[in-house]
Amino acid sequence: MVLAAGRGERLRPLTDRxxxxxxxVAGKPLIAxxxxxxxxxxxxxxxxxxxxxxxxxxxxxxxSGSGVRVAVSREAEPLETxxxxxxxxxxxxxxxxxxxxxxxxxxxxxxxxxxxxxxxxLAHLVLVPNPAHRAQGDFSxxxxxxxxxxxxxxTYAGVAVMSPRLVESVKRGDKAPLAPxxxxxxxxxxxxxxxxxxxxxxxxxLERLAELEKQLSSRDETR
Length: 223
Known about the structure:
Blueprint: E1 2-3, E2 24-25, E3 28-29, H1 30-40, E4 45-50, H2 54-63, E5 69-74, H3 80-92, E6 97-101, E7 104-106, H4 110-114, E8 123-128, E9 139-142, E10 145-147, E11 153-162, H5 179-187, E12 191-195, E13 200-202, H6 206-221
Parallel strand pairs: 1-4, 1-6, 4-5, 8-12
Antiparallel strand pairs: 2-3, 6-11, 7-13, 8-11, 9-10, 9-11
């Protein structure tokens, strides 16, 4: 599932006319980077939730040519992350699924995550070293188990393998954030994780978008 329903307030005025997942970096929409990497990892079916400027995303998905067939879960207004997942469960089914935030750029290998088995756990999170804007991090990681306390702490990358059981308390149509559910699962030691050290960027502001564009451009110039 690609989370693509957000309003993108901190990217305004850009997102007044373009939904956040269609913001381009290195000449390609963010969601296109995700779909290409999902296809390369062996994914053939996905779900995207849409709300703000939804039809632009739907039109793009119909013509993207990524090789991934994407079903659309519509939200009259953004339901936040857990609410969006709960709304999409009829499309996702009962098995664990790969979850990707639509407003990040990440070069992680999706193939490994698509093959990940949760067992009795509720989720498996990808963490990254803390960026400057999130210096305190989100979670600790000890022997592959996610915790709420302890050090060192890392930032949730917006990429996870998730069981539908994680959102079973959320009613369809309700707004609900994901973080409290992850923290409750971590308290029960039912969430595992891994640290990713490659290129990752939260494209949440115009400044961070420009920073990522500069990184990718400088890489191209040295090839």
